[in-house]
């Protein structure tokens, strides 16, 4: 069994703990994946990530395909060796990036044609191509190639996108099953991606059609793209009801700490989001509201209240009041910043004078906060 | 004795090993000081610096006075605590920066008036002020406030600058001796700075006058400011002859690895330079020419030839040929990059896609190269 639930679940809508086996080790669910877009979590090394206790990283197929490109990845022997990370890696399919980052993209049944924003060269990303790239990267979890429509989205278009996503998922699965001559299967897993915007019936259709094809896990895509939070939770809850209990469920690109708490309550197992790292680079840090929260959680994790957004606060490090704040962000935190003894006043100074070390220390801190959040959530289930 | 030579020297112009005692520990000479301009070695934390084996850091009085300013430094309890570095720190006097970075500076006998490049505010830096700032910073080695003339420099002006530097050195020493009410002397040392451009007689005059005042050590300033290398070596050799053998000698802002080798041969004990860190940020790495040089040096340091610039080479990491170079920069190096297993191909990729991690790993590598160079030089004396 690739995925094992620690408690059997009668319904799709309750929190759950499990274990997901990959070719690079097992990870306890629910978990959060820090984002190493271009083969590095911005400002941090793979050794830093291991030190923070990250269990799995996410990398971007689109970015790595563009630079350094497949030839380098092949010669490097895959992404793990290239970035020197021995834990599991999930790669997205590139679909989302093709839509959000490329100029002059043209969608067809075949796939998406697009122009490189770096050198203007033309490329075509198809389900077959996306999977083949991910096979070359050697990621532990491969994502099917999907179409993620924007929000808001007319129901007619959302319906077309769901059906195209199903056909692309089928082609993704077929490519995944093919043995590539010089790329042996490395125990990779393939996940399908449920689309359907905020329409419950389309989400149900998408979930049913993907299950008919059969995947190692199911992702919920196309959320947190601008819809109201309540709408996201409703769509998520109804979608989860349509997914099998015995497969891991991955909510893509979500989100704020309170979103993750709520999604775990609803039965999601996997998360990724740029929020902790991107906010860190802009000087915003997450800290537990209670004193010594992290150590409390280690001692008595189940007592920690994680309702709403009340369990944490955000620190704007460039705020004037941090100029003379000679305490670390969180004395119970074990990140490079807090564990290293770097005060808020020092971080404030580093941001004010533009020293990149400030961004690095805050990124490490925020990722640790998210990882600690998952630890607390696991403890609370 | 603050400074102890391991072998007594009959002449001022031969290589020497010694030990310099400071309030934050003793350091073996000759040594190199990585530059933490604004309270951080660019991209690296104090923990990183300790990991690389740096024995002492250099920080800039001018920059720290401008930002975060003295009030913060006072409240922080000094620079060591502010940046969380428990080893020794040397601070420059700010004179060089006032001349090179400030707009609308006006030199007078009193000191230098200048305008902040950040907010346009007017400031005055005098010998008394510079020393008082460094007393607040609590650096282990305080530098006298000097005038560093540009190159080339008319002899008449160089002469005036020498005499002003002597008068300022006297005032620096007087300020240094005063007990500041709320800033107890923390076992700080005060160094004088020899000026005189490339004129041997002016250098001799400057060295004599400073010794008459009396300092814990003597720096040679105003070199590597554009003069030919041979001229720098000649001036350095003649100046060293004028300095007492029993005090540490610090060659400011120099330089390339071969410059350091030559200066150590002539009897210099201390160095600082932005070259390793600045070049790293531009993608240039230093590596030993011999295979396994670093491990060889540990085993048989005296056999290592360090003549000319032949003992090392520079690697331009963005060079196309590094795209598929799946080896570390130097397999015998213990830096964050090489010891961490990050290949040249990965570093190349990080630089090409603009990931700050690349700059960090290369900075760590180059600083380790400079520190290893000093270890090899110590072994060869």
For this entry, give a set of tags.
eight-stranded parallel β-sheet, TIM Barrel, 40% helix, globular, three-stranded antiparallel β-sheet, 381 residues, homodimer, alpha/beta, 16 strands, 14 helices
How would you describe this structure to a colleague?
- Two copies of one chain form a homodimer.
- Chain A is an alpha/beta fold and 381 residues long.
- Chain A has 14 helices and 16 strands.
- Chain A has helices at 46-52, 61-66, 70-76, 79-83, 95-101, 127-137, 155-177, 200-213, 229-241, 257-266, 275-281, 293-299, 344-352, 356-380, and strands spanning 3-5, 18-22, 25-29, 31-33, 57-59, 89-91, 103-107, 112-115, 122-125, 141-143, 189-194, 217-220, 249-251, 270-272, 284-288, 312-316.
- In chain A, helix 6 crosses helix 7 (155-177), helix 7 packs parallel to helix 8 and helix 13 (344-352) crosses helix 14.
- Chains A, B: One of its GO terms (cellular component) is cytosol.
- Chains A, B: Belongs to the queuine tRNA-ribosyltransferase family.
- What is the strand content of chain A? 15-25%
| Widest sheet: strand ordering of chain A | 4-14-13-12-11-10-6-5
Rounded to an integer in angstroms, the radius of gyration calculated over CA atoms of chain A is 21 Å
Question: How many domains would you count in the coordinates of chain A?
Answer: 2
What oligomeric state do these chains adopt?
homodimer
- Principal-axes geometry of chain A comes out as globular
Summed over residues and divided by their number, the pLDDT of chain A gives a mean of 92
Helix segment count of chain A? Answer: 14
Catalytic activity (chains A, B): 7-aminomethyl-7-carbaguanine + guanosine(34) in tRNA = 7-aminomethyl-7-carbaguanosine(34) in tRNA + guanine
Domain tRNA-guanine(15) transglycosylase-like (chains A, B): 15-381
Keywords (chains A, B): Glycosyltransferase, Metal-binding, Queuosine biosynthesis, Transferase, tRNA processing, Zinc
Biased composition (Low complexity) (chains A, B): 7-17
């Amino acid at each position: 069994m690739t995925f094992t639930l620690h408690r059997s679940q009668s319904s799709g809508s309750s929190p759950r703990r499990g274990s997901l086996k990959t070719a690079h080790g097992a990870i306890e669910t629910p978990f959060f994946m820090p984002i190493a877009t271009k083969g590095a979590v911005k400002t941090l090394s793979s050794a830093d990530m291991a030190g923070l206790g990250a269990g799995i990283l996410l990398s971007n197929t689109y970015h790595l395909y563009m630079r350094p490109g497949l030839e380098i990845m092949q010669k490097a022997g895959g992404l793990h060796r290239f970035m020197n990370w021995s834990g599991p890696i999930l790669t997205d399919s590139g679909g989302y990036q093709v839509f959000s980052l490329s100029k002059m993209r043209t969608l067809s049944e075949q796939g998406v044609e697009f122009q490189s924003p770096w050198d203007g060269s033309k490329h075509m990303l198809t389900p077959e191509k996306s999977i083949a790239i991910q096979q070359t990267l050697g990621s532990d979890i491969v994502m099917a190639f999907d179409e993620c429509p924007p929000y808001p989205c007319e129901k007619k278009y959302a319906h077309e996108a769901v059906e195209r996503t199903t056909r692309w998922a089928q082609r993704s699965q077929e490519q995944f099953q093919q043995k590539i001559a010089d790329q042996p299967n490395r125990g990779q897993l393939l996940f399908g991606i449920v689309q359907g915007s905020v329409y419950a019936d389309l989400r149900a259709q998408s979930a049913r059609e993907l299950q008919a094809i059969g995947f190692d896990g199911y992702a919920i895509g196309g959320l947190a793209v601008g819809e109201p939070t309540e709408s996201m939770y409703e769509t998520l809850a109804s979608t989860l009801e349509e997914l099998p209990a015995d497969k891991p469920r991955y909510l893509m690109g979500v989100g704020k700490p309170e979103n993750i708490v709520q999604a775990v309550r609803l039965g999601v197992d996997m998360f990724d989001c740029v929020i902790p790292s991107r906010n860190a680079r802009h000087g915003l840090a997450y800290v537990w509201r209670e004193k010594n929260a992290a150590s409390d959680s280690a001692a008595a994790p189940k007592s920690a209240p994680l309702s709403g957004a009340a369990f944490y606060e955000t620190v704007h490090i460039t705020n004037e009041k941090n100029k003379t704040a000679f305490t670390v962000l969180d004395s119970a935190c074990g990140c490079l910043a807090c564990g290293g003894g770097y005060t808020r006043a020092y971080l404030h100074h580093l941001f004010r004078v533009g020293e990149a070390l400030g961004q690095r220390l805050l990124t490490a801190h925020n990722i640790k906060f998210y990882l600690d959040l998952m630890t607390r959530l696991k403890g609370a289930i």
